[in-house]
Amino acid sequence: MTASLGGALTEADPATAAEPVIADGPTEDDWDAAVAAVRRLPPDGRVLLICHVNPDGDALGSMLGFGLGLRRLGVRQLQATFPHPSDVPEPFRGLPGLDLLVPAAEADPAPDLVICFDAASVSRLGELADRLTGPGTALVLDHHASNTGFGDVNLVDPAAAATSVLAEELLARLGVALDAGIAECLYVALSTDTGSFRFDATTPAVHEMAARLLATGLRPGDISRRVFDSRPFGAVRLFGEVLGRARLEPEAAAGHGLVWTYATLDDLARHEQRPYVLEALIDPVRCTAEADVSCVVKQAGPQEWAVSLRSKGATDVSRVAVALGGGGHRLAAGFTGRGTVDEVVERIRAELAVPAPGGDADRPG
Ligand code: 5GP
Ligand code: MN
């Protein structure tokens, strides 16, 4: 999500997940089915857009950008939402299309068409999961290799740098021209998921898409400052404290090294900060040259921790996250841990010590 200190992000997507379910991108039949699902909406057809819990730039940006496109197509009964809590993280509060958002509790219970963005499975949709099984059509746009194909129509491309790549293509196939509002949303999505165009998924096609988006008149400097390079002074001081207690364990992760730190609810309270600021904390931690694996453990409740894991390439952190009840990509994954910080980190250490099947540690990232 938010990036920091030169701008990386929390959802890195250059990697493939542990258990690919959908190996190839959408077929022409899939695209045709997706276009047909939109085109056959009745004049007052109701559309609900949803994305994953704790939405990042790609989830929100692809959802809102696509929503603005549907509005241009004349869709009037249109809502966008994501699971509770419904706060939009500060870095995304300037996004066009925020007026489409409603709290999950107010989301249409039975839309004619529900479109789901950037979620690999229904477990990422919280209380909105039941919208996928209603009488309407469920269309899924995603780029996680672990996507379970839970829609009636699935546009899932693990090779895509971001879900917004699929959103842009579907808008083009629907005949919707890019305008500055749509483009800004899709640009935020693309730039966050590629770590400001630094990760391996940054193909020529990604830069070509960025060029199409910028050609609508976007100001990339303003957008990047807002999304990546801005945080309250209290968060700057909080980061200093939390980084000061980081631990380096060179022997962990089969000798590839682990660096980790944690932040508590009390840390947040002392610095008068809200939890979203911690999303960017993984970025300065993962700079550690001596460690392949980096980890930030963020307190969410008395015995509950949201864990972010990153790898530089030698370790499949999605395997670790899946083993501990979460998921993600090979180089960027997460899970919810319970107990004390030390117990959570000890479980991570133990999983990192398990030999990877098929000699994963030798594969390049
Ligand atoms: P982050 O560290 O930015 O929260 O998440 C990194 C990656 O791991 C993202 O692709 C995200 O979807 C995935 N991820 C993070 N937390 C969880 C979780 O609790 N469950 C699952 N299934 N995936 C997660
Ligand atoms: Mn994404």
Automatic annotation (TrEMBL):
<feature type="domain" description="DDH">
    <location>
        <begin position="46"/>
        <end position="189"/>
    </location>
</feature>
<dbReference type="InterPro" id="IPR051319">
    <property type="entry name" value="Oligoribo/pAp-PDE_c-di-AMP_PDE"/>
</dbReference>
<dbReference type="Pfam" id="PF01368">
    <property type="entry name" value="DHH"/>
</dbReference>
<dbReference type="InterPro" id="IPR001667">
    <property type="entry name" value="DDH_dom"/>
</dbReference>
<dbReference type="InterPro" id="IPR038763">
    <property type="entry name" value="DHH_sf"/>
</dbReference>
<protein>
    <recommendedName>
        <fullName>DHH family phosphoesterase</fullName>
    </recommendedName>
</protein>
<feature type="domain" description="DHHA1">
    <location>
        <begin position="277"/>
        <end position="351"/>
    </location>
</feature>
<dbReference type="Pfam" id="PF02272">
    <property type="entry name" value="DHHA1"/>
</dbReference>
<dbReference type="InterPro" id="IPR003156">
    <property type="entry name" value="DHHA1_dom"/>
</dbReference>
<feature type="region of interest" description="Disordered">
    <location>
        <begin position="1"/>
        <end position="27"/>
    </location>
</feature>
